[in-house]
Fold:
Amino acid sequence: MAYVLPPLDYAYDALEPHIDAQTMEIHHTKHHQTYINNINSALEGSEFDSKPVEDLISNIEALPENKRAVVKNNGGGHANHSLFWKVMSPNGGGEPDGALAAALIADIGDFATFKESFTKAALTRFGSGWAWLSVTPEKKLIIESTGNQDSPLMEGNTPILGLDVWEHAYYLRYQNRRPEYIAAFYNVVDWKEVARRYQAAIA
Amino acid sequence: MEHLLPPLPYEKTALVPHISEETFDYHYSKHHQTYVTNLNNLIKGTEFEDSSLEDIIKKSSGGIYNNSAQVWNHTFFWKSMKPNGGGEPTGALADAIKAKWGSFEDFKKAFQASAVGNFGSGWTWLVKKSDGSVDIVNMGPAGTPLTTADKALITIDVWEHAYYIDYRNARPKFVETFLASLANWDFAEANFKA
Structure:
């Protein structure tokens, strides 16, 4: 059973002006689709092709050696983008509340401190990669970044918020101005979805 | 010592239609310039303040390494292209390529596959090894042969910013165009002889 491109919950132009329609469409239909095509062709006919992609990338070592790199890059790309679309919304922005807000304060600091730290992670990731808010196996929140399409799942953490800082995520609108893209991202973060993922991760 | 953005070896419009002036406005005037500016800021008050660019690349790490290597790599990349480029090398470099890959066509296939498969931001290089043979080497975001025993001959920048304005996600088309219409084999031959 092959992986399929998950539909977005909103239109390509729904995140304007923060993320433009053309970027969303190419990012979803070309970049994300290519990761899916690549992992499907690598796993076709193998015993691994029906497992959730998150399971595969959580345990890369279980794969035959000649499949590891392709699953790390393309399975990672599929999992990361699938999360990314879900944690953004045209009704996003603002701040988290409830248990997630309390945990953020306990583990990272107030919302301004969180933003500062998450922004730094996104800004200082040299080259292609992601900034993450993740839950550790000890149920603590941490901010981290990974290179290329590596996922926090590969190190045992569960990502609940991710920001794609590959240039393809922002180049058409922001060109070399990654700081402006990162600042705009906070306007579309769907904190309800992040909180839902937090609850699932600590359950 | 203040590092300066070296002039482009041609006009920003010289590689149209393969690389647009807009790409050079960003890639040269913004990205390359930012690496120069960052480097100058980062080395202030450090042991690298008066070092040459190549010395910094060979001895530094972290942000100073990334920015210095990117300054050098971009200067090398501009020289790796020319208007009406492409074609084939001649002489000793052509012989070395044939010895390694059998034919220039097979070299192109190998270079295309390497550059397309260089996952994420990075650089794909044709290098001369210490034994005089040539090879293709993929490197990451600020990778440069200067830190290895290899000598750089020609390179293609495969950061998305190198091709996103003109080619979007179509990296294979960008690499194909580089080989067919941009590659400066005179530059690579001179590096091979040096």
About this structure: The beta strands of chain A are 129-135, 141-147, 158-164.
